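Design review, sub-item: ligand-bound model
Attendees: FS, YL, KQ
YL presented the inputs for the adenosine-3'-5'-diphosphate complex:
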Amino acid sequence: MPLNCWSLASRAPRFQFLGQTTDTLRHRRYPHTQFNPCYRFMPKTTHHHQSYCSLHSSVSTSKLGQDQGRFSSSTTMENGGHYLRNGFQAATGESYTKELEVAVRAVQMACSLCQKVQQKLISKSQDQVQAKEDNSPVTVADWSVQAIVSWILCETLGRSNVSIIAEEDVQSLSKTRAAGLLETVVQTVNSCLAEAPLFGFQPPEAPLDALQVLEAISRCSSTMPPSSKFWALDPVDGTLGFVRGDQYAVALSLIDHGEVVLGVLGCPNYPMRKEWLSYHHRYHRIVSRLTPPAEDSWDKGCVIYARKGSGEAWMQPLVQEGKKLVWPNSARRVRVSAVDNPEMATFCEPVEKANSSHSFTAGLAHSVGLRKQPLRVYSMVKYATIARGDAEVFMKFARTGYKEKIWDHAAGVVIVQEAGGVVTDAGGRPLDFSGGLYLQGLDRGIIASAGAELHERIIKAVDASWNSSSLGEGEKAS
Ligand SMILES: Nc1ncnc2c1ncn2[C@@H]1O[C@H](COP(=O)(O)O)[C@@H](OP(=O)(O)O)[C@H]1O
Ligand SMILES: [Mg+2]
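KQ shared the predicted structure:
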């Protein structure tokens, strides 16, 4: 069981921030800079010091690459001074600094792994695609990413501080008949970990064996009740998009006492031109090949991330093969679109009508005045689309009885919110991540919008049409 951070709190020194104005300026101009001489170590008594606990305790167990001086204990002490300010919003805006950086680096690494596996899947055979019990395809990438992220988080933040809920379990992978598959996963994990220094991590001293890989995967339980602070991981969200060579995402978030405090979304196939989102990915793969990527290329793929309360969402290009991730890796800020005229707005939704009712959203779009064709995109890339300002609305209305899992939304929600957007259920309430595996008390569907006005219109339209539609009665997705 993960160690409860509160118990560490009493042992940890507590720090207070001095010089808020300077910090605000620094943070605006150099948002990724971690060291700030304006911070002083002072006793303080707010409960947000729990973030410090994990920062501090992780230092001793850190296996980050030696070149990552920012993770040394002295700079971590400085980081510890960042988060204590007035109230929750300011506090979260300044804390989880180390967790965020580790998470972004881990997701970059996972994206690199996924790209290689997807390339193989598309160019070779389908034998790396297995059927899960619910028949959704699960691949070597799902298990490998889960193993990698689990291993990295535990090694860098300290195993006792890390609790993870993630999608994949090891049952099918541990079966004797899956020996070949397990071997492939172990190989994939080890060849990815061999590149750990490129991402700022130290590789394991020896390649992981099958048991260690299974252990890393199964450490991420989706059945055990999570601790008060835990990571939610969808190793490959939009598996269908992934196996089809289309959009998918690696989604990692940190949830603390029911609040999503960090969100990181790796979108390896996000195209440089938003119009290409609506084509099958094969099309822009061909085009990308014609224009070879430059250094720090934005041609395709990105990692988007945000920290709750910061009012900022950031995007990095994917690290090019064989290149080193130099933090903050040409990150730039993303903002939601300023378009509030429905006629000019684009809404996106799942590709699969089994996952969201296309007919219901078409009716909503009509009544709200959204005139453009829906942008149908696999996975949480839809949240990235809103955060980047490439679309204005995302709607999902799953069939009655479907329980939305937290890892399918957590990262995207905080990113859209910090990029200036709004995300609620169809009743206008914030999504509730406080209940473990599933979103709690979700009212009908999920709506994310670039602006409050557009959002309000859609919610009104749902209210007006819900009862008169067949959706209120039974099956929603049709
Ligand atoms: N019947 C259903 N209704 C709604 N969502 C579903 C669903 N079955 C699966 N999903 C979720 O929808 C996700 C894919 O989202 P999208 O349809 O937007 O591409 C899946 O993630 P995975 O692919 O990670 O399993 C899965 O969690
Ligand atoms: Mg998913």
